[in-house]
């Protein structure tokens, strides 16, 4: 990026070193200016989109409060999944809630009980069960466990009090970290199908 210091123009390189402008090739200067210009446009677009999203959610909340008043219902907290359409059905807006979940320390207590169960059943248990359990508790590159794979263990029909206790502990160990609202917009085509209007630049 270009910087001015004591009346002299420099370009800062990836190491943080300030290189005098006259020592930077014209093509490198042009590339720097081009990328910086594009990024500034993208940053502005992102801010505009965030502003529009906030306004849309606020407008929908206002509508829901009015609709609730029509039925004498008191609303509280964030709204869950919701679909709104124009009177003619041409346009449709869907609000979808996505929860980011994680485990509390209870997950390790549950895993300890599961390991004890498998050890207890070692003579009669299916050897593949340990493989299934170990794979379920593996962490990904971000150091996170796959919640769906672990909770899927509850579907195993195992009639053992320790196993059932472990499943209860694991279920109670799930917590919601963040909850995010996503806005999806659709337009109905001539065939009556709703087409998602993708706002992702990569898909335009």
Question: What can you see in these coordinates?
Answer:
It is a single chain. This protein is of the alpha+beta class and 204 residues long. The protein has two domains: 1-77, no CATH class; 105-172, no CATH class. 43% of the residues lie in helices and 23% in strands. It contains five helices and seven strands, in the order βββαββααααββ. The protein has helices at 26-71, 106-120, 127-136, 147-151, 161-172; strands at 2-5, 8-12, 18-20, 82-85, 91-103, 174-188, 194-196. The strands form two sheets. Strands 4-5-6-7 form a four-stranded antiparallel sheet. Strands 1-2-3 form a three-stranded antiparallel sheet. β2 and β3 (18-20) form a beta hairpin. α2 runs antiparallel to α5. It is flat, with a radius of gyration of 27 Å. The mean pLDDT is 86.
Low-confidence stretches: none
Tell me the fraction of residues in β-strands, as a range. 15-25%
Major β-sheet strand ordering: 4-5-6-7
Q: Percentage of helical residues?
A: 40-55%
* Average pLDDT over all residues: 86
The description of the largest β-sheet is: 4 strands, antiparallel
The dominant shape is flat
**How large is the radius of gyration?**
27 Å
Q: Into how many domains do the coordinates divide? A: 2
Number of helices: 5
Provide the structure class. alpha+beta
Termini separation comes to 29 Å
Order of helices and strands: EEEHEEHHHHEE
Number of strands: 7
